[in-house]
Amino acid sequence: MSDLSTTYLGLQLQNPLIPSASPLTRRLDTLKKLEEAGAAAVVLYSLFEEQAILESHLMDLYLSQGTESFAEALTYLPEAQDYRTGPEEYLEHLFKAKQALGIPVIASLNGYSPGGWVRYAREMEQAGADALELNMYFVATDPNMSGRAMEDMYVQLLSDIKATVKIPIAVKLSPFFSSLPNMALRLQKAGARGLTLFNRFYQPDIDIEMLDVVPHLILSDSNELRLPLRWIAVLYGKVDVDLALTTGVHTSEDVVKGLLAGATVTMLASELLQNGIGRLSVILRDLDRWLSEHEYEAVGQLEGSMSLQSVPNPAAYERANYMRVLSSYTPARP
Amino acid sequence: MSESTRETLTLDGNEAVARVAYKLSEVIAIYPITPSTPMGEWADQWMAEAKPNLWGVVPSVAEMQSEGGAAGALHGALQAGSLCTTFTASQGLMLMLPNMHKIAGELTATVFHIAARSLAAQGLSIFGDHSDVMAARNTGWVMLASNSVQEAQDFAALAHMTTLAARVPFLHFFDGYRVSHEVNKIETLTDEDLSALIDETLIQAHRGRGLNPEHPVLRGTAQNPDVYFQARETVNPYYAAVPGQLQAAMDKFAALTGRRYRPYEYVGAPDAERVIVIMGSGAEAVEETVNYLNAKGEKVGVLKVRLYRPFVAELFAQALPPSVRALAVLDRCKEPGSGGEPLYLDTVAALHEAWTGALPTVLGGRYGLSSKEFTPAMVKAVYDELAALGATGRPARRHFTVGIKDDVSKLSLDYDPAFNIESPDTVRAMFFGLGSDGTVGANKNSIKIIGEDTPNFAQGYFVYDSKKSGSVTVSHLRFGPRPIHAPYLVEAANFVACHQFSFLERYDVLKSAIPGAVFLLNSPYGPDEVWNNLPRSTQQQIIDKQLHFFVVDALKIAREAGMGGRINTVMQVCFFAISGVLPRNEAIEAIKNSIRKTYGKRGEAVVQKNFAAVDATLEHLYEVKVPAAATSLFDRRAVVPAAAPAFIQTVTAPMMAGLGDDLPVSALPADGTYPTGTTKWEKRNIGTEIPVWDPSVCIQCGKCVYICPHAVIREKVYQPVLLEGAPIGFKHTPARFKEFKDLAYSLQVSPEDCTSCGLCVEICPAKNKAEIKRKAINMETQAPLREQERANWDFFLSLPEVDRTAIPVNSVKYSQLLQPLFEFSGACAGCGETPYLKLISQLFGDRALVANATGCSSIYGGNLPTTPWAQNRDGRGPAWANSLFEDNAEFGYGMRLAVDHQHATAAQLLAGLRETVGADLADALLKAEQKDEAGIQAQRGRVAELKRRLTALNGHGSAATARLLDLADAFVRRSVWIVGGDGWAYDIGYGGLDHVLAAGRKVNVLVMDTEVYSNTGGQMSKATPRAAVAKFAAAGKPMPKKDLALLAVSYGHIYVARVAMGADDEHAVKAMAEAEAFDGPALIVAYAHCIAHGYDLRYGINQQKLAVQSGYWPLFRYNPALRAEGKNPFQLDSKPPSVTVDKYMYNEGRFSMLAQSHPDEAHQLLDLAQADVTARWATYERMAKGA
Fold first, then answer.
1. Between B49, B466, B562, which is nearest A81 by CB?
2. pLDDT at A246 over 80
3. How confident is the model at residue A327 (pLDDT cuts 50, 70, 90)?
4. For residues B291 and B485, what is the distance between their CA atoms, to the nearest angstrom?
5. Neighboring chain B residues of A67 at a CB cutoff of 8 Å
6. Is residue B500 within 8 angstroms of chain A, CB to CB?
7. Residue B615 shares a structural domain with residue B741
C-alpha cells in the first residue's frame, strides 16, 4: 500500500481526494458518508451572501406585504420566534459538521459586500472551519471597468479577509484572467495559501421556444480536466501556494494526472453526484493500485513531476501544444 | 410574562387579555372571527413557542371548524375537568349559544373572552357594539364588562378567579376595536400575581367534578315535566353568591395591585341629580366628561355597570347617589320592537324593585353602534337632555339616540361637535397613510417607544378603510403626562402628518388640525416648490390656522435606502424630530432599537436598510415658509363626476370622502338594499404603474383581460367607423378573429382603477421580437398617462359590446370579449380569486343569482361604500346577496328552490292561459331549451312578447294573468352560483355544502381555494396544505389537505372540476361552461393564489403552473353526463408530475418560512407532502383509467 497522505493549506490529509462544494455537503448524513468513503477533507457548499441578503429582503417583503392595511387582517403570516437566515443556517451547519466529522472541514464563502466577506469569514472561523475557500468571481459587464481594476478587487478583498482570520485561505478562481500566473502571484502575496482551479459557472442557455434565458448546469466529465491541468502545470513551482484541481476529476487516472501536473489535492463533485458516494473509495483504491503498479511509494512523488518546469518539452503546455493539435487535424495530402 | 416585577407595557386589549387567559388555561379551542382573532393567534403562537401556563405546562390550543365546534370542544374539555377558555365575537358567539346554555346549566367554571361586535342585520359590521353579548344574556353566564385595555387585562384575571369559586361560567367582554385594538400603556400582571389570585383548592374541586371512570357519574340527562322545572331552580343560590364572590375577588385584586373595582361603580358628584348608566369603553368617555363638567360646577355622575349578569338590583340601587333625579341609560345595541334596550329595561326593573324614595326619571338612549364615535360632546348632550327634563321630570321623549342625525324617527340628540375637553398637556397626533407604506406599523412602534422609553402615557388607535388594496389608514395617537382615557378619535390635532401627497386631492386632511398645529407632509416637492402644488383650500387652511408646515421627500429617502415605498421609518424619524417628545439623539437611538427588535430576526440586511433610512432623514426635513396668501388655481377633485346618479351623489360620495358619519338616517335604505355597479364611480387612482398596450406585438389572445383581478383591462371589436371622434392617441388595430375580419380591435386600460399588480404582463405570451423583455403590454409610470388614458377609457366604454350570440363564448379568447359584470373591487392587488368571479360574471352574469359566503369575497364584493357587481347596458347583471359564513350553500340552495318554484308556477299559469297569450308563444316559452346564448336571447324575446301581450289585456285579464306577468321573468334560465372560500367550504360550511350537493338541485358552487382563512389574516383551514405555515399552524400544518373535490366525486351524481386558471386557462373556462350546462349540482374547486401565501402575487400564474406541474394541484373534470355516452366521467386534465413539489413550495413564504424557523420539521413535512402528491396522483390516474 502506498502512502497517500499529503498536506493542503497546512492541513494533514490522509489522501489527496476532497469532495468539493455540492448538495452532498449540505446534509450531515451525506457528509458522514463522504468521510466513511475516504474523503480526506470536505469543502462545504458556498455561503452566498447575496442570496442571504436577498432572502432577508424577501422575507421582510412577504411578512410586511398587506399588513396594517385592512382591519380584519393586520398580518397574513405568523411571525416565528426566530428565523435562520442564510448565514445562520450555514454557520450552524458548519458547526455541526465539525462536531460530526474527524476530517478537516473547509468552509466556502461567496461574499457580496466588502463588509460581508470579512464578517462571514470571521464567523466561519469562529464556527470551527479548518480553512476557508473564497469562492470569488466578478463577471465584468461594465466596459469602463479595466482588467486591472477587477484584479485589484480580488486582491483587496483577500487582504482584508487575511487581516481578519488566522485559518488558512484558498482562493477559488475562474480561468478568465489575461495573465493567470500574475494573478496567482498577487494572490499569494496577499496571503493566499492555496488556489483552487477552476470555478465552474452556471452558463446561461437560451430557450428558443419561450425566448427565455435559462440557467444551465451540466455535470462535468473527464474532458474538462484539461483546462485546470494545463494551468496547474504552468503555475506549479512559480507561485508558492498549494494548488487544488477541481474540474473533471472522475477517475483515479484523472487524480494521477492532476497530481503529476502539480496539484496537491484533487476535488470532485459531479462523479459522486452521478455515481454515488461509493465512487470515492473506488477511486482511492484504484489510485493506490496505480501507484503500486507504477512503483510509486507516495503521492508526494507525483506532485508537479509533470509540471511545465519538469517536463522535457515545456512548449507542450504552451503555444506549441496548440499548434500540434491543429496539425493533427490537418487533412492528409492526396 | 414570568417576571416577578410588574412590567409597564404598551399593548392592545386583545394581547392584554390573551396573556392572562393563556396563563390560566389548559385547553383553548379557537376559531377566527374579527375582532377577537388576535387573541387566538397569540395563544397559538405562544403554544408554538412552547410557552407554559401558570402550572408550567404548555396549554393545548386547538382550532376548530367553527365557533360552534370550539364551544363543543370546550364543553367536552370542561366535562373532563380541564381549565378552558376561548375567544370570540359576533356571529361566533351566536354559534356558541347552545353549548353555553349547557355549560351554565351544568354549573361549570370557565371564561369566554368576547371582543364585543355588531351582529349582521341590514348589513354585516366587524366593528364594536354590544349586540352580540346582549344576545347571550339569557344563557345563564355571568357577564362582566371591562372598559379599557388595563381593565380588560384585570377583568380577565377577575373572571378566571371568580368562575372557579362561583361554578358559574363567565362571559368577559370588552368593546371590539376600541378596546381590543386600542394600544395603551398598562401595568401587566406577573405570574406571581396570578398565582396569588387563583385558589388552587378551587381548581382541585373543578377537576374533581370532571368525568372520571374511576368514580363515574352521568350528565346530560333528558328530563321530563315532573322534574325539569324544579331542577332549573336548583341553581339560584349559585347566582345569588356571585356578586359577593366577585367583590371578594376584586378586593383581593385591589390589595395586590392597588387597582380597585366594584360590580357597580359610581363616579361623580355625591349629590348629583343627573346620572348616566353605561357599560363598556363609552364609560371612560362619560367619566372624563363628568370630571370636566363637575369641575365647572355641575353636579353629574356616571354609574359604570361592570356586572351585567346577574343584574343585582340592590347593589345597583345602592351605588347610585340618593340625590339622583334623572337617569339616562345608554345601550350600545338596538333591540327593534322592544320596550327598550336591555340595560335600560334592567335599570327600570332594578329601580322599581330596590329604589327607596321617589323614582328618578329614566331615559333610554342608544349610542356607538358599530364603533360609531361616542365623544364628550355627545355625553354632554345626554346630560343636557336630562337637564331639560325640568322639575316635572316628564320627558318629551323616553328614548333617544346620540351620535347620529335621525331625521326619520326624530330620536337623535343634537350635540355641539366643537365641545372639546382634551387636556392641553396631551399631544394629539393624526397620521394619514397608505396601508402599504407602513404608517400604522411605524406609529405602533412610536407608541411603544413613547410608552416604554419615556414617563409619558400613550394611546394609539388605528382606522382602516375597507379596501384590501391601496387602503387608506388614519392613525390617532395621544401621549402626555396623565393616563389617557379617551376612547374616541382625535378631533383636535396639534400634529397632522400626511404620508401620501396624493391624499391632498382627495381628503381634507387638515380638518382636525387646531390653530398653531404642525403639518408634516411627505412631498416630492421641496420647501420652495411645494406651495404651488397644494390645493387652494389646503393652502388657505395652512394660512388660517397658522400651521407650522414641514416637508420631507420620504419616498426618495426610502427608495435610496432600499425600502421601496415603505416610508414608515422616515416619517417616524420626522415625527420624533418635530414633536420633541424625546431629545433627537435619544429618539434616533430608540427608533434604531425598535427597528432591531422588530426586524432583527429577518436578517441584518433588513435592519441596515432601515438604519440607512433613519440616518438620511433629518437632513431632508425642511420647514416651509408659508406665504401670506393662497395662490393655487386648483382645488380638491370632486369625489364623483357630475354624471353619477343621485344616490351616488348624495349617499355614496360622502362615504367615499370619509364623511359617512354625517349622513342622516333618511339617506340610507331601510332594508339593506343597495344599487349594484357602484365601484365605477370611485376612481381610487392607486396604481403607480399601469399596463400600456403595444398593438404591433399583441396577438389578441385575451389572456391579460382574463387574468386581470380588477377588470381594468378590457377588449372590444367594433366597426372601424366608430373610431371617428376617438381621442387622439386612442389605440386600435385590425381584429384578429375569424368572425370579425373587417372590424377594429382595441385593448384598453382604466388608468384610475388599476392596482399595478402586473399579472397581465406576466401572463402575456406575446414578446416583442426586437427586444424580448418587452411584451404586448408593459408596465409604465401612471402619472403622465393618467389624463390621456382616462379619455381613452371613457371613449372605449362608449363603444358597443359584442353580440353575445355571435361568438362561441366557451374559450378564453372569445369569453374575454364579453363585458365583465364584476369590476374594480377592493380586493388585493394581484388577487387570485376575483378573476374567477369576473369570468362567471362574463359567462352568466346577466342571468345569475349569487350567494356569497362571508369572507374575502363578501368584503370586496359587498363592503360599502362601493360594490363591484355590475350591470350591462340593459340593466341586467348578477343579483348578489350574503347571508352568513356558515350557511352559504343552504342560502344559495334556497335561491334555487325559489327560482324553480317560480318557474313551475309560471309554467302552470302559462299552461292555463295558453289560448289567452297565444298557443305558439306559450309552447315556445315552455319548451325553450336555452342551451346557449342564442337560445337565451330568443327566450328573452318571448318573455318580452308575453309581457306585452299580458299588459295589452289592459285590466281585462284575470288574477292569473297578473300573477303570470309578475313571474314572467322566471322563464329565462337562471344561473345560481354559490361562491366562497375554503374556510366556508372546507370547514364551517362543509356540512351544508355536502347536503346541498347531495340534494341534487341545479346549483353551481365555486370554491375559491386560497388554502387559508384569508379575510381574517391567513388562519389554517382544512384546505391548508401540509408543511405550510399559517396562523393557528405557526409550526407548520402537520396534516394533509382535505380533497374536497374527490369527496364530491364519491357521490357520483355531481359535476366536479378542479381548476387553476393560471395554469390552464382554457380548462377553467371549459369547466365553468360544463358546470352550468350540467343538469344537476356542480362543484368547481379553484386554486386561488393569495397574499397570505407570502410572495409577490405578480408571479401567481407561475406558481399556479408549478402547482399543477408538480402534481400538487392536478386538474380534472368529473362529468356524470359522460356516463350516458359510455365514457369514463373522470377526466384527468393535467400531465404527470414533472417537477418535485419543493420546486413549487419553496417559492412561497408560507413554506420557506418553516424551513427557516423549524428546519427539521420542514424537511420531514416536505417528504410527507411529496408522498401525499405521489399517492394522490396514483389515485387519480387509476380513476382516469377507469380502474
1. B49
2. yes
3. very low
4. 12
5. 435, 441
6. no
7. no
pLDDT of A84 strictly over 90: no
Q: pLDDT value at position A82?
A: 82
Residues B871 and B676: beta-carbon distance below 8 Å = yes
Residue bearing cell 319548451 = B927
Give pLDDT tens digits for B211-224: 999 999 999 999 99
Backbone φ/ψ region at B583: left (φ over 0), alpha (ψ -120 to 50), beta: beta
B418 within some domain: no
Q: Quick check: B370 contacting A, CB < 8 Å? A: no
Which residues of chain A have a CB within 8 Å of the CB of B1091?
65-66, 76
Do B388 and B249 fall into the same domain? Answer: no
Task: List pLDDT tens digits, range B845-856.
Answer: 999 999 999 999
Take residue A146 and report the three cell numbers written for it. Answer: 479595466
Extract the runs of DSSP E, i.e. beta strands, from B859-937.
879-881
Q: Are residues B366 and B268 in the same domain?
A: yes
Q: Which residues of B touch A56 (CB under 8 A)?
A: 602-606
B502 in the same domain as B387: no
Q: Answer whether residue A150 is part of any domain.
A: yes
Q: What is the mean pLDDT of chain A?
A: 90
Which residues 6+ apart lie within 8 Å of B483 measured at CB? B185, B457
Statement to judge: residues B504 and B613 lie in one domain: yes
Q: Residue B1092 is nearest to which of A64, A76, A79, comparing CB atoms?
A: A76
Q: Is the ipTM of this complex over 0.90?
A: yes
Binary contact (A78, B466; C-beta < 8 A): no
Domain boundaries, position A170: 6-328
Q: Do B598 and B682 share a structural domain?
A: no
Residue A23 has what pLDDT?
A: 86
Cell numbers linked to B618: 433629518
Secondary structure string (H, E, C) spanning A68-120: CCECCECCCCCCCCCCCCHHHHHHHHHHHHHHHCCCCEEEEEECCCHHHHHHH
Find chain A residues with C-beta within 8 A of B48's C-beta. Answer: 78, 80
Please indicate whether, in this complex, the C-beta atoms of B562 and A57 are within 8 angstroms of each other: yes
Give the confidence band of B956 by pLDDT, cuts at 50, 70, 90.
confident
Q: Which residues on B lie below 8 Å from A84 (Cβ)?
A: 1156-1157, 1159
B34 is catalytic: yes
What is the domain count for chain A? 1
Nearest beta carbon to residue B468 from set A69, A75, A83:
A69
- As a whole number, mean pLDDT of residues A74-94 equals 87
Whole-prediction pTM: 0.93
Is residue A14, in this structure, part of any structural domain at all? yes
Q: Is residue B85 a part of any domain in this protein?
A: yes
> B1015 an active-site residue?
yes
Could you tell me the pLDDT band of residue A319, with boundaries at 50, 70 and 90?
Answer: low
B566 contacts on A by Cβ (under 8 Å):
64
CA distance B568 to chain A (A): 12
- Cβ contact A66–B1150 (<8 Å): no
Cβ proximity of B576 and B454 under 8 Å: no
Least confident of A107-116, B260-269, B295-304: A107-116
Within a domain: residue A86? Answer: yes
- Write out the three cell numbers for B765: 405570451
Q: Which three cell numbers stand for residue B976?
A: 345560481
Residue B953 is predicted with a pLDDT of 87
Give A 63-82 residues with CB within 8 A of chain B. 63-82
Q: How far is B563 from chain A (nearest CA, A)?
A: 9
Structural domain including B592 reads 427-623
Q: How many domains does chain B have?
A: 6
Which pLDDT does position A330 carry in this prediction?
46
**Is residue A328's pLDDT more than 50?**
no
- B621-631 pLDDT tens trace: 999 999 999 99
For residues B221 and B248, membership in a common domain is answered with yes
Report, as an integer, the average pLDDT of B325-338: 97
Bridge partners for B328 per DSSP: B276, B363
Cis peptide before B865 (omega within 30 of 0): yes
What's the pLDDT score for residue B392? 80
A115 touches chain B (CB under 8 A): no
Q: Which of B606, B828, B1034 faces A66 most closely, judged by CB atoms?
A: B828
The Cα angle at residue B843 between residues B839 and B847, in degrees rounded to 5: 120
Residue B882 domain flag: no
Q: What is the pLDDT of residue B122?
A: 97
CATH, residue B91:
3.40.50.970
